[in-house]
């Protein structure tokens, strides 16, 4: 009546990091290509149009890298001291950079020539940006001021000196050419409108020196980082705090949007870059770097992630291309390739074979375009035919027993249910016995499988107890015993700790509750407690040898 | 309403019925459709099925009921087709009724008179006005005597001490001289009688007990099945004292039924393996139809040779077409086979219907056990099965010859007050292996799909057997539902629905909120107050009252004289 039901493979959810779409997406980044510079990487800016050149400012120069070849495409060295915050215009033709002497310098990427110098700041300029209309420049300086410059006439239009400390962070609106944000070491983030020269329109307190600010493309929300905190502010509600996220344990230094504005990336001195979902501000992935991260750049297509570090390293990571993935893992890619090809199956109609007439492909050939979804695995095929030894053999291949132990355990479980474990385990030669024993030794301390593994081990001992074993198998049995002893020892320690915790809990609960009841609240259910497995292990091991 | 259903559903329980009792149990409408083998009409368009005192005539084409014949006052013990349109039936009191199949009217009623005997076991109609009836044996219990009743002569006793099951008697025609040949089974022998020529034979093989017999409709060939699963084909068994035998052995369990196809080319056999085997006579070829759901009790072949009907122990009759596929089924109320391999300490109701009857407020139906690992929802008002749900989702395993292989059984069911949630507890245990599995599953009713969807599957919710499950009643829709379970591991656990939504998907799942115990006593019973504000758990002879939200013990109640555990 019913078709054969597949063997149930129970894989319990793994404790620890979950595999999500995001982790898979960000894991596809290749091994980084690193370039060493002489000083810390102060700022990285990515050209918003192809070929996505990367402007890196470090020490006394600004370099434009090609993200594909990792070669320096242009470099600008006309700085007396350190250059800061080089930023590329949205058309990719001009680059602007601040410097220690308080000037803002404008270069042409094509001709490498210095086109303008904006003089007026009395302190070093750490950040400077083009406005959206491309003919104005905003500069953020250590003289506590923010200035708006006219590009063609090289003159200062307006200057705001509201901050009481260095202004080290700033950004411009992507919609309006008049709006820009500044973040300062005086803990405040201020929003300016060039049309109202009286002062800032919004001022919010971040709580710690602001390292970087960012305005969302929608222009309704801005984000500031500084200290170990990320704060999200609502611009339309006059700077209401929307969220506070603290995921880094050292100062956050840089901010970037990724995945078309759906993800936010922060880099910090704790050598991590965290990727957040912009709706929930939950961390979806973390990237690790060898040194404190000072600056981050991500190309608009997420293809390249560039990080600048305190020790002068620039790390460039590419997303794996299909060709690279194929080269790395030929087997898997072959499978994908096969799947992508349209599978056709041809079958001759039955009556054509019996009647001798001319062949007409239109009517005599059945074409099955749909691939068979009712795939039956090999172990299920053998289980269906009651060939228990063969079913067990198929799940003891090195690949399955190492990579997918849940399948091996699932088949063993089914064999226990079918009362076929003994016949499946009996009469094995040395090599297959050793593969079973190594599998048992490897997995006997996994609490989610322990009850089945112990059952299998007990049956195995029962069968091979009296038979003479080769030295190799004997060694493996002893190895299994050693594993069990170690686990028992380990669980004993755990139970000691559990006992200590119980005393602590009991002393607190007795104060709150009547002494007659003893309730442990919120203890999650585990399918198998280690204590039980340990007890079973301990009884089993007396049979060995 | 529930009480009435209780009576009905308990009806097919064979463990309760006492076969030696002369008073046949009166049931409103017994739905046991597999107690007697069904009979095809001569044109193979209809099939007649006896169920208790009723006879149903079903269309083979659509498996729908055409007529319901209700005249008998006792259980029907045999059906036969007398003529093209006439059905002959006999009940346990010996009353025979002739029915018109086309319009379902009664044609003739006549009592069988056999030497003052009041009770009959089985009824066969070889034709020509002759009737074979089995009556209880005079000396041995559980055995029958076979009588031939004719309208002209006095009833004659053919055999004494034969088996009383319907398929231990077969009859056929001797092609040579046209005489009637009757065979019957005794435990270790086959007795043969050629009525016209008066030839008597008794064949014995070895110590294997016979279970069923069938005769070829044209040639003088007999097939017998025995408890070792062996099928013997006997040739020329009337005349020779040592007839030639062919052995067909595939079954490992007793053969429950054998049946020749009407042309006589094939032999069908079935047993507890849930596999129907189709043997080609004279050749070694055989075809299988596996996983038929439950044990085969009877196999009946249609006269036109196109269709085969099999009666199964789960109260279903399935039709198999000529391509060896099941294409239709008549399904009664599914009967739960008693659980085997249970510890002896379990009460009998635990093994017969462990879930009991659980009312579903959503459909106003009743949940109870179906086949092993299944749960059925029965509507007592319409007297119909709403659905039969596969809880365990495992292959149903059959026993081996000397080995009972248990299947997962649904032991406890609880329905939430709104009917949205269903909690099932399935247990698989093997006492000999000392290993058991337990799964607590939470199902949510999906109104769009109109079925239950598995939400959470908890492996080993308690370390030992769970004795009761109960949802907290009286919760408003805004609160998260809550389930309490108690087990023999001395714990009670409170399960709550937890919102498990993250940025990738929306999800709710159940998880254990609280696990507690009370003075290391075994909890034995569980109940809630009607508004759900108070939870009572009985620990042996003490009743404890708890506040289900804060899990505070309010009071303990106990009686100094009562020492027995509260149930």
Overview of the molecule:
The complex is a heterodimer of chains A (545) and B (567). With 545 residues, chain A is an alpha+beta fold. Chain A has 2 domains: 299 residues, Methylamine Dehydrogenase, Chain H (7 Propeller); 111 residues. Chain A has 14 helices and 31 strands. In chain A, the strands form 8 sheets. In chain A, strands 1-28-27-26 form a 4-stranded antiparallel β-sheet, with no helix packed on it. By secondary structure, chain B is mainly β. Among the domains of chain B are: 237 residues, 7 Propeller (Methylamine Dehydrogenase, Chain H); 135 residues, Methylamine Dehydrogenase, Chain H, CATH 2.130.10.10. The two termini of chain B are 24 Å apart. At the A-B interface, helix 9 and strand 31 of A face strand 40 and strand 44 of B. Chain A: Keywords: Nucleus, Repeat, rRNA processing, WD repeat. Chain A: It is found in: Nucleus, Nucleolus. Chain A: One of its GO terms (cellular component) is nucleolus.
């Amino acid at each position: 009546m019913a078709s054969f039901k597949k063997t149930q493979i129970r894989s319990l959810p793994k404790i620890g990091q979950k595999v999500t779409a995001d982790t898979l997406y960000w894991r596809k980044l290749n091994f980084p290509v690193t370039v060493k510079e002489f000083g810390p990487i102060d700022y990285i800016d990515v050209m918003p149009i192809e070929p996505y050149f990367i402007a890196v400012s470090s020490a006394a120069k600004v370099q434009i890298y090609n993200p594909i070849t990792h070669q320096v495409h242009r470099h600008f060295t006309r700085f007396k001291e350190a250059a800061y915050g080089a930023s590329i215009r949205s058309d990719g033709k001009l680059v602007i950079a601040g410097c220690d002497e308080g000037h803002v310098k404008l270069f042409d990427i094509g001709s490498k020539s210095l086109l303008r110098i904006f003089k007026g700041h009395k302190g070093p300029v750490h950040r400077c940006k083009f406005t959206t209309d491309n003919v104005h420049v905003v500069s953020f300086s250590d003289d506590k001021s923010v200035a708006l410059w006219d590009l063609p006439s090289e003159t200062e239009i307006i200057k705001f000196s509201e901050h009481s400390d260095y202004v080290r962070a700033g950004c411009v609106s992507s919609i309006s050419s008049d709006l820009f944000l500044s973040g300062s070491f005086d803990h405040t983030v201020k929003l300016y409108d060039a049309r109202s020269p009286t002062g800032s329109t919004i001022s919010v307190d971040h709580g710690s020196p602001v390292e970087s600010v960012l305005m969302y493309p929608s222009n309704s929300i801005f984000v500031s980082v500084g200290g170990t905190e990320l704060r999200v502010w609502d611009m339309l509600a006059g700077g209401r705090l929307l969220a506070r996220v603290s995921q880094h344990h050292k100062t956050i230094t840089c901010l970037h949007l990724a995945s078309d504005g759906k993800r936010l990336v922060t880099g910090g001195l704790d050598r991590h870059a965290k990727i957040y979902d912009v709706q929930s501000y939950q961390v979806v992935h973390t990237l690790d770097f060898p040194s404190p991260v000072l600056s981050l750049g991500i190309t608009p297509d997420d293809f390249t992630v560039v990080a600048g570090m305190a020790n002068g390293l620039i790390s460039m990571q590419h997303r794996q291309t299909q060709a690279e993935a194929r080269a790395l893992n030929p087997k898997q890619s072959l499978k994908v390739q096969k799947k992508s090809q349209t599978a056709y199956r041809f079958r001759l109609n039955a009556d054509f074979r019996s009647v001798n007439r001319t062949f007409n492909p239109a009517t005599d050939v059945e074409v099955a375009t749909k691939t068979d979804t009712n795939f039956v695995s090999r172990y299920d095929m053998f289980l269906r035919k009651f060939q228990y030894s063969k079913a067990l053999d198929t799940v003891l291949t090195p690949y399955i027993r190492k990579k997918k132990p849940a399948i091996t355990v699932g088949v063993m479980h089914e064999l226990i249910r079918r009362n076929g474990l003994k016949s499946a385990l009996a009469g094995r030669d040395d090599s297959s016995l050793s593969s079973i024993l190594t599998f048992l030794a490897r997995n006997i301390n996994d609490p989610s499988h322990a009850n089945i593994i112990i059952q299998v081990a007990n049956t195995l001992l029962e069968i091979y107890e009296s038979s003479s074993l080769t030295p190799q198998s004997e060694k493996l049995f002893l190895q299994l015993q050693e594993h069990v002893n170690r686990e028992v020892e380990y669980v004993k320690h755990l139970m000691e700790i559990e006992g200590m915790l119980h005393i602590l809990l009991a002393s607190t609960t007795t104060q709150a509750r009547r002494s007659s009841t003893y309730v442990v609240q919120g203890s999650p259910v585990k399918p198998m407690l280690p204590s039980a497995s340990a007890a079973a292990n301990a009884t089993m091991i007396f049979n060995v040898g | 309403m529930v009480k009435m259903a209780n009576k009905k559903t308990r009806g097919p329980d064979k463990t309760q019925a006492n076969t030696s009792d002369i008073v046949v149990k009166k049931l409103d409408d017994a739905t046991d459709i597999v107690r007697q083998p069904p009979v095809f009409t001569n044109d193979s368009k209809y099939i007649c099925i006896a169920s208790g005192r009723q006879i149903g005539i079903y269309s083979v084409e659509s498996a729908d009921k055409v007529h319901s014949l209700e005249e008998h006052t006792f259980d029907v013990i045999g059906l036969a087709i007398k003529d093209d349109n006439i059905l002959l039936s006999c009940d346990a009191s010996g009353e025979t009724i002739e029915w018109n199949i086309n319009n379902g009217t009664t044609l003739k009623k006549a009592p069988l008179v056999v030497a003052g005997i009041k009770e009959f076991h089985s009824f066969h109609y070889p034709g020509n006005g002759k009737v074979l009836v089995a009556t209880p044996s005079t000396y041995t219990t559980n055995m029958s005597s076979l009588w031939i009743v004719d309208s002209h002569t006095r009833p004659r006793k053919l055999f004494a001490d034969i088996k009383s099951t319907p398929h231990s008697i077969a009859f056929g025609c001797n092609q040579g001289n046209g005489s009637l040949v009757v065979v019957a089974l005794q435990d270790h022998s086959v007795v043969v009688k050629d009525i016209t020529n008066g030839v008597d034979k008794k064949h014995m093989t070895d110590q294997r007990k016979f279970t069923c017999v069938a005769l070829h409709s044209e040639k003088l060939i007999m097939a017998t099945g025995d408890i070792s699963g062996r099928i013997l084909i006997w040739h020329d068994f009337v005349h020779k004292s040592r007839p030639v035998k062919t052995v067909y052995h595939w079954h490992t369990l007793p053969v429950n039924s054998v049946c020749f196809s009407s042309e006589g080319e094939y032999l069908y056999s079935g047993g507890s393996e849930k596999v129907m085997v189709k043997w080609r006579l004279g050749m070694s070829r055989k075809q299988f139809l596996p996983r038929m759901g439950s044990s085969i009790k009877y196999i009946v072949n249609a006269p036109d040779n196109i269709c085969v009907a099999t009666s199964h122990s789960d109260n279903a009759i399935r039709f198999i077409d000529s391509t060896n596929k099941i294409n239709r089924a008549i399904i009664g109320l599914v009967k739960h086979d008693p659980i085997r391999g249970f510890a002896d300490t379990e009460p009998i109701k635990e093994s017969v219907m462990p879930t009991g009857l659980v009312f579903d407020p959503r459909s106003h139906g009743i949940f109870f056990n179906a086949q092993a690992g299944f749960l059925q929802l029965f509507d007592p008002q319409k007297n119909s099965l709403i659905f039969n749900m596969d809880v365990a989702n495992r292959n149903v395993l059959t026993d081996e010859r000397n080995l009972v292989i248990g299947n997962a059984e649904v032991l406890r069911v609880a329905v939430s007050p709104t009917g949205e949630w269903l909690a099932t507890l399935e247990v698989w245990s093997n006492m000999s292996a000392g290993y058991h599995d337990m799964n607590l599953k939470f199902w949510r009713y999906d109104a769009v799909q109109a079925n239950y969807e598995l939400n959470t599957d908890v492996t080993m919710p308690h370390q030992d057997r769970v004795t009761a499950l109960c949802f907290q009643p009286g919760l408003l829709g805004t609160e998260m539902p809550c389930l309490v379970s108690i087990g023999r591991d001395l714990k009670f656990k409170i399960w709550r629905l937890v919102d498990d939504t993250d940025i990738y998907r929306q999800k709710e799942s159940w998880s254990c909120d609280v696990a507690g115990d009370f003075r290391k006593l075994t909890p034995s019973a569980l109940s809630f107050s009607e508004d759900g504000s108070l939870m009572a758990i009985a620990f042996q002879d003490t009743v404890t009252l708890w506040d289900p939200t804060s899990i505070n013990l309010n009071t303990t109640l106990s009686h100094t004289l009562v020492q027995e555990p509260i149930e």
